[in-house]
Each structure stands twice: as structure tokens, then as C-alpha cells.
Design brief:
The chain has 430 residues and is of the alpha/beta class. The protein has two domains: 51-187, Immunoglobulin-like; 202-425, Aminopeptidase (3-Layer(aba) Sandwich). The chain is built from eleven helices and 15 strands. It has helices at 2-7, 12-42, 45-51, 163-175, 224-242, 259-268, 302-312, 332-335, 339-356, 393-399, 402-425, and strands at 54-63, 67-74, 81-85, 90-96, 98-100, 113-122, 125-132, 136-145, 152-160, 202-207, 246-249, 273-280, 290-295, 362-370, 382-389. Strands 11-10-12-15-13-14 form a six-stranded mixed sheet, sandwiched between helices. A five-stranded mixed sheet has the order 5-1-2-9-8. It has a four-stranded antiparallel sheet with strand order 3-4-7-6. The longest helix is centred in the N-terminal third of the chain and has 31 residues, at 12-42. It is elongated. It starts with a helix and ends in a 5-residue tail after the last helix. 37% of the residues are buried. The model is unreliable at 1-23, 36-48, 178-194 and 320-337 (pLDDT under 50).
Length: 430
């Protein structure tokens, strides 16, 4: 009978066994199919996307040595933590595991950013490190959804700040979580109203030109960059001798500096005054004497505009021309001029003209204005002193005279004393 069950297909017992075996095979097949479906769902494209690293689709930096914006685009929303480090001054941005598809030219050092590094730290963490050209503030760090629905972006706004401000941000960071995702202007990191009772009145002296940018050349071969450095050094020594000020120079050697780097140095020293020293040439050979300039979008006269145009071309000597027509970049050189700062600049210019008139020759209408980039720090009163014209033989001889330099430097020192005293009396100076 047992053999009949296997061989007798038409018998009832064989039919029952055949259908039972078929049913069990179908159950096994369905179980396999269900397992296969579950496995396929586990490795579906959406699951792959969730587990795959983030992808940086683009990286851009724009700005100058005083303000920078960095934008990174991602394929989906990143979970971001960031914090500051010093020695050197750095912004560290931590991300989930991220694939950085970044063009090398996009991370090339520029403006306020000295270097960009990025990579995988392991254990599902990737890191971006921005090293600043000195201390800086993080004005904003936002994670934003792209308007076209193509993903998300991180937008970082940085600006030059002082060591004190950076250290205050570090202290605040230590007291809180040590990292954050975003801060608005009201919660600006590093540039809040930090108490600074030990601050002394600070002067930054800027010797114009330098390095490959020699500036103007006199009738007898005198080079402007040498004249400005010699005079700035004399002025620094006289101010230091007073003993009441902190004095810095944007350059102490024959060094090329971009115009925005000169502004950055003044801001990072929390300067109460920036004095830029120059000695130009002009086609009118008989024109001579010193001039004091303040900043203005509209020049006071054609000669002032021509001078500003020449000085503003300085960056082109090193192939570093900055386009002013990029409307997507915050232009600190134009948009952030503060009325109070301009007012202080005008007051100092008036005082300076009065003091210089007692010791050196001045041109007609010696207080003038033009759109000098080096004078456009948003929070530092600034003037440009044109010591004289190298195109005039008498002026050239005076600029080379130690006696003349001493008299002019002393007049500027006297003007600074009056200005600093007035600021201190108004509760705005050290």
C-alpha cells in the first residue's frame, strides 16, 4: 500500500498526498517570496539614500579680508554642529558622514579665509575646518532649504574681529553647549558688547603701497612706498613716546598688502583711528602741499576722485583685482559705512588740518573727500594723509628731510591727542 500511494496516480490516497505536497511547496514558495520582498524593501533606493553619506554638491566662498560668505550645497538636509578653536583661529563644522565633491579651486584661500580643510573623521562624522586670517566673528551659520527644491545649503557669514572678541566668543561657547547650529544677528558670535575696561586708545598707521606696488615715483626717483614707510615709522615712535596709546602699523617692511587686508588689520586691533599715509604725483607740477582726505561716495573734486581711483587700483599689482559689481557679495567697502564713524573721521580730519597748518604747507582746500577703499572700515574712524606731491621738486625734497618728517609727525601726534581726549570725554575712547 505504501508503494501504491507513490505510484497509483488515480487512487484517492495518491491524490491526497500529491495535493498536500503541492500545498506545502506553495507555502514554502510564498514564504521565500515574502522574505525576498522584505529583503528587497530593506535595500530599496530610499533605504540606500537614508544610509548613504551626505553629498556636497557645490562649495563657494566670496568676500574679502573683512567679510566673507561661504555656501555649501547638499543633496539633503545636514545635521550640523559647529564650534570655534584658536591657535590658529578656526571655525569647525561637524557633519554626518559626507562625500565632498568639491573643486580644488573653490577652496583656494581668499579674503578672510586662510585655508580650508575637510574630510572623514570615521564613526559616521565628517568635518570642515575654516582657518581665518586672524580672529573673526561668525555672524550667521544657517541651514536653509534651497528654493528650487534641489536640496539644502549651509550659509556661513564671517567678519574680521579682534582677539578680545574672539576670546569672548570662546568663553561664551564654553559656558553653553560648546556648539550650535545657527545664530542670528542678535546672537552674533564674537562681536557683542563685550566689556573692555583695559582698552587704550589705539592707532593703526597704514604706510601706503609696498612690495611689488611701489606707488608713485618722484622727479628724482623717490618711490612712494619708501617715503610712506619712513614717515609711518617716525609717527609710530612719537606716538609710542607719549605712552598713552597702543600703536600698530599695517606693514613694517617692504610688503605688499591688499587694501581690504589693511582694513582688516585695523578692525582686528579694534583701532580707534586709522591713518593711511601717501605721497602721490600729479600732472600739475606747481601743485604742492599736504592734504587730508576722508571717505565719501562722491568725491569733493575731480583731483580727489582721480587720486582715489589710482589708490584703489593697488590690488591689481598682484593680480588680485576685486570686482565691485558683484551684487551677490556683501560689499563691506560700500554698504556698511556707519554715520557715526564717518562723523568721527570728519572731526579728526578738521583737527588734523588745523594742526598741520602750523608746521607744514597745505594745498588749497586741504580737507577733501573721495571713495578710498582703505578708509571704508565700518567701525574705525579713518583718514588718508597725502603728505605732499612727489611730482613737485620742493615737496619731494621735504619728504626726504628728517627735520620736515619730524615736524609733520609731531603735528599729527598733537591732533591725535586732541581727538583721543575728546573721545574719552564723550565716553567713547580709552
Amino acid at each position: 500500500m505504501g508503494l501504491a500511494v507513490f505510484t497509483h496516480k488515480s487512487g484517492r490516497a495518491g491524490g491526497i498526498f500529491f495535493y498536500a505536497a503541492y500545498f506545502r511547496a506553495a507555502q514554502f514558495r510564498d514564504a521565500c517570496l515574502r522574505s525576498l520582498v522584505v529583503a528587497c524593501l530593506a535595500f530599496s533606493p530610499s533605504s540606500f539614500a537614508a544610509d548613504a553619506p551626505l553629498a556636497v554638491t557645490s562649495y563657494k566662498m566670496a568676500g574679502d579680508a573683512t567679510e566673507m560668505r561661504i555656501v555649501m550645497n547638499f543633496d539633503r538636509e545636514p545635521d550640523v554642529k559647529w564650534f570655534l578653536l584658536r591657535g590658529p583661529h578656526r571655525l569647525v563644522v561637524d557633519l554626518p558622514s559626507t562625500k565632498f565633491a568639491i573643486d580644488a579651486k573653490d577652496v583656494k584661500a581668499r579674503g578672510l579665509v586662510r585655508s580650508v580643510r575637510y574630510g572623514d573623521l570615521g564613526e559616521g562624522v565628517s568635518r570642515l575646518i575654516l582657518t581665518g586670517k586672524g580672529p573673526f566673528a561668525v555672524d550667521r551659520l544657517d541651514v536653509l532649504k534651497n528654493e528650487d527644491g534641489s536640496g539644502y545649503r549651509i550659509a556661513i557669514d564671517m567678519s574680521a574681529a579682534s582677539v578680545r572678541e574672539f576670546d569672548a566668543a570662546l568663553a561664551n561657547q564654553a559656558l553653553t553647549t560648546g556648539s550650535t547650529v545657527s545664530s542670528d544677528k542678535g546672537g552674533r558670535v564674537g562681536t557683542g558688547p563685550v566689556s573692555n575696561p583695559g582698552h587704550r586708545f589705539t592707532v593703526v598707521i597704514d604706510p601706503g603701497h609696498g612690495g611689488i606696488d611701489g606707488g608713485a615715483e618722484g622727479l628724482n626717483g623717490t618711490v612712494e612706498k619708501n617715503v610712506t614707510l619712513a614717515f609711518a615709522t617716525e609717527l609710530r615712535e612719537r606716538l609710542a613716546a607719549v605712552g598713552k596709546y597702543d600703536v600698530f602699523m599695517t606693514r613694517e617692511t617692504d610688503q605688499f598688502l591688499r587694501l581690504d587686508d589693511r582694513v582688516r588689520i585695523a578692525r582686528q586691533h579694534e583701532a580707534d583711528l586709522l591713518i593711511s599715509i601717501h605721497a602721490d604725483t600729479i600732472r600739475v607740477k606747481g601743485l604742492r602741499g599736504a592734504t587730508v582726505y576722508t571717505v565719501s561716495d562722491k568725491a569733493s573734486d575731480p583731483e580727489a576722485q582721480a587720486l582715489a581711483d589710482r589708490e584703489n587700483l593697488s590690488d591689481q599689482f598682484a593680480g588680485m583685482e576685486i570686482k565691485d559689481d558683484d551684487k551677490e557679495v556683501t560689499d563691506i567697502l560700500i554698504d556698511l559705512i556707519r554715520r557715526e564713524t564717518h562723523s568721527f573721521s570728519m572731526r579728526f580730519a578738521q583737527t588734523l588740518v588745523g594742526q598741520l597748518s602750523t608746521s607744514v604747507d597745505l594745498i588749497n582746500n586741504p580737507q577733501r573727500s573721495a571713495s578710498f577703499k582703505v578708509l571704508k572700515a565700518p567701525d574705525v574712524p579713518s583718514v588718508l594723509v597725502e603728505l605732499g606731491y612727489l611730482s613737485n621738486a620742493k615737496d619731494e625734497a621735504q619728504l626726504l628731510s628728517a627735520d620736515w618728517r619730524g615736524k609733520a609727525a609731531q603735528s599729527i601726534t598733537n591732533a591725535i591727542a586732541l581727538f583721543a581726549s575728546a573721545r574719552a570725554g564723550a565716553g567713547t575712547g580709552g
